[in-house]
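Comment thread on ticket #2218

A.B. wrote:
> Attaching the input chain for the structure job we discussed in standup.
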Amino acid sequence: MGLQQGFTKYCCFLCLWDSRATDEHYKKCDWPKRTYEVGKTNLQHSPLVDPNKVFLPPLHIKLGLMKTFIKTMGKTNLAGFLHLVGKFPKLSEAKLKEGVFVGPQIRQVFRDPDFEKTLSELEMSAWNSFKWVCENFLGNKKSSNYREGVETLLNAYEKMGCRMSLKLHFLHPHLEFFPENLGAVSDEQGERFHQDIQEMETRYQGFWNEGMMSDYCWRLFRDNPNKIYKRKSYSQHF
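C.D. wrote:
> Ran it. Output below, let me know if you need it in another format.
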């Protein structure tokens, strides 16, 4: 959407939500509408697409909610964090602390009763609300009382002490922006990207390398069934 990178003050493409005004995040719902004037309010370039035609992919919202929950839980709940370390031994400690999970891993935690035993009362309330929203709003099924469920999630996250991320913000003042049928929005490509990047990070042994993304793009290009590659013979070089 042409927003500047990094920890921007106004990172929502719909409104001028102040990401640094932490005292107002769960209390203020009506933020000024964004105007797309280049050079102001963190806007570097004109939008490439009409903002009203942008979809909020449910998978990214789910990953963001999981990340916020785990980061907050990990500050005080050592038992819960150590349980996840044992459950996902291939994930680095840094990624676990940041709550970086993919869809299948989140579903594994959903089905794990031992993880829930490590949670406090406030954490359990937030965890149940998160599971409910995933099953009744961010999936193929949309309950008639989804607004009450989302409100319960926001209240539980606030009591738990979760910082409001951009993904949480979308659920707060922009709930009407989500399409009526979230199940019609395919997350297949997004799911594949996160799983492929996780495999790519394993190849790089968990260390960030600037060539990682280009390596991933080349892999997609190479695996394209419409492309035909022919190995040059030795004589072609002379």
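A.B. wrote:
> Thanks. Noting for the ticket: The two ends are 49 Å apart (CA to CA).
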